[in-house]
Amino acid sequence: MSWLHDAVVAVIQALIWPSAIYFVLSNTFMLVLVLMAGRHFSRYLRRRGHRGEEAMAASPLSPGVSVLVPAYNEAAVIRASVRSVLDLRYPDHEVIVINDGSSDDTVALLRDEYDLVPDLRDLPRRLPVRGAIRRIWRSQGGPVPLIVIDKDNSGRSDSINAGLDLASNDLVVMIDADSLLEPDALLSVSKPFADDPDRVVATGGVVRIVNNSRVIGGRIVEIRMPKQIITRIQVVEYLRAFLLGRTAWSDLGALVLISGAFGMFRRDVLLELGGLDPDSIGEDFELVMRIQRWIRDGDRDARVAYVPEPVSWTEAPSTLKVLARQRRRWHRGLWEVLWKYRGMLFRPKYGRIGSVALPYYWLFELFAPLFELVGIVILLLGFLTGALDNTLALFLILVSYGYGTLVTLAAVVVEEASFHRYERWRDLGSTLWAIVAENLGYRQLTAVWRIQGWWAALTGRQQVWGEMTRTGFVGTTTDASGRPGQAEGRD
Amino acid sequence: MTWLTDALMQVILLITAALMLGTIVAVVVQRGLRRRRLRREAVLDAQVRLLVLTATVCDDDELPELLQRVDGLDADAQRHVRRTVLGMLRDVTGEAATRLRAVADAAGMVPAVMAAVEHRSAAVRSDAAEALGLLRPPGALRNLRSLAEDRSREVRAVAIRALGAFDDQSATALIIAAHRTGSGVSNGLAASALLQQGLVAGDAVRRALDDPDPGVRHGATRVAGILQVAGAGDALVGLLRDDHELVRLAAIRSLEQLPVRSAVPRLLEMALGEGVEGEAAAAALVALPPSWTADAMAQLSARAAPAARRAAGLPAREALA
């Protein structure tokens, strides 16, 4: 079977250098993003003393914000969640909860807690909403208006559209019912709108992982690294890709993704664009892509910004099963959005979005799991067939895993020099261990799940996302934060 | 690959390992230094915070002795006093703020801030502008006027915000000027500074309603209602027909707070239109005295778009599902 051996050797030798070059480019690109973010943080923090958020908090001229909170079977957390949003420090905001056909008593709890009365006012119907609206409730008093829309189940995006239709303020922010917000979250994320009101059309805030942190009264009182290794690794991932990566993309004027767990938008722009796409799996990514295309198609002097200040905390999957579902979903969404907007690729009209961001997402996000798995296969086959000498194998491992680890360490240096949210020495140890452990199975597993999600999209298979169960927060008080055993509504 | 020799590979490996070790050491050292600094600040805090707080509430005859104690602190402690005072000044007013300013003066803050006005770093000049607005030492207004025309947009913005703390016509003129289109200062920030000035800015705001620059008209229109500027009502009604949508919107919202009967026909016309203006005008009509708007509300009920009807609090025409 020497011909088979020769064929395998030929394939390996044809693939080995492209793979190595791919990993070098991928890691170098990420390193550049990390360094850019580091420079941004340094400037951002230097200006903390005179940014004027206090003045904004006190000014009646600050732009009004409507906070949209879609909720599906959130009875365990809804009262505390809504309370924490009502209590946010901001001079002018309203809260709109959209009950997406929950089978539990989410609405009844809100009605009792906030003494809601039927809201009989007319409905604007500026946006098409699929889920029929059963009833609308509103609070009777209080400094922050609360509206609750009770509608048939039709998904998160459609629920947000229902809320958007009723929003009355100039800015809207979408959050998840199970997220914890920093008290100044609205101030931080609306600041770019106040500073540059003519140009900023959307902002995103940093979402961090709350697992194992102590939560009292709906507020985080002690930030700690999660206990499970897969969640610790996600902390590192969020840090590298979300906090640092998106900050750098924002600096480049090519931010294409704002997390659905915390994004703020100009209401008039969302209405003009028709709201969220209820058919999209990656609805947050799709929306920002649509905004970026709208900006450039209309030759508008507008931009999408990212705020590096931590504003929202969310519980990350702590089991492989849940994580697998999340990654399949994310990758499927990534593929669908990239494919939908393939016409923007390499078109000069779309500037850095078309020439840098989208090629990056195609090459180093969408194809990443494919290259990852091909690399592993090459290594294994190379060893088995003897086509790969030790030096070359070591080189491939070094440019993929070694260089990748170095980039992640650089990200940790930047975090340590800027926001350093995990203060305990043992958390630093956990972080360093997570950086190593990420390469020992986690990356490979997530690559497999991502390929599965992509394959499901390509073959048009219906994806069943299923129910997920949260583990709850540590140190919660049942009356205030009230989150033990809560359901995980969105992965 | 002939060039990828074992020796070269060893060098690459060594460099990678050294870089990894270097970054880990860097993180550990960073954290160690920061924790040491925090411990030091905690010690300083224990030393000076009570002193600063006492100075804000003590009897007048006790103050000189307390200020003398501040003056006698070492350089580190005085720096900490300055930080503490600046942080507290954002939250207090009146006599307590005056006392805090005296403490800051005793800690040598004023000369440091005055020197920073000329610093080559825009961030340092911005900090100086912020501090001048909070401390208001003699000469602060002159320096802020200069910083309001700084080459850096960031410094100009902070200086304009700081000028809001001064009851002075020259400060008002600079704030009004900062509203001009292309000034680099956001309209909301400049308008908030006008609001902070309060009634002192009233005359200037009324004149600015007729300014040829839409940015100035926009800012003045936003604050005219909140400040209840005397004689601004008719001008606001006229601005309901301004060429610029932002000015029209601001006029609608201002008229909610400064009701004028002659605004009703135009507000009704706008409320019967589409979009944000229609909603804002409908909401404004609701805020006016009902005796002025009975006819207008009847027309709204019959003819307005659902969004405007909702803004006006009118019930749905059709039942929900």
UniProtKB/TrEMBL annotation, chain A:
The chain crosses the membrane at residues 20-38, 360-386, 392-414. The keyword Lipoprotein does not apply. Keywords: Glycosyltransferase, Membrane, Transferase, Transmembrane, Transmembrane helix. Coiled coil: none annotated. GO terms for molecular function: glycosyltransferase activity. InterPro entries: Nucleotide-diphossugar_trans. PANTHER family: POLY-BETA-1,6-N-ACETYL-D-GLUCOSAMINE SYNTHASE. Belongs to the glycosyltransferase 2 family. This is Glycosyl transferase family 2.
TrEMBL record, chain B:
GO terms for molecular function: oxidoreductase activity. SUPFAM superfamilies: ARM repeat. The keyword Cytoplasm does not apply. It comes from the Bacteria. The keyword Transmembrane helix applies. The chain crosses the membrane at residues 7-29. Gene3D superfamilies: Leucine-rich Repeat Variant (1.25.10.10). PANTHER family: DEOXYHYPUSINE HYDROXYLASE, PBS LYASE HEAT-LIKE PROTEIN. This is HEAT repeat. It comes from Agrococcus baldri. The lineage of its organism: Bacteria, Bacillati, Actinomycetota, Actinomycetes, Micrococcales.
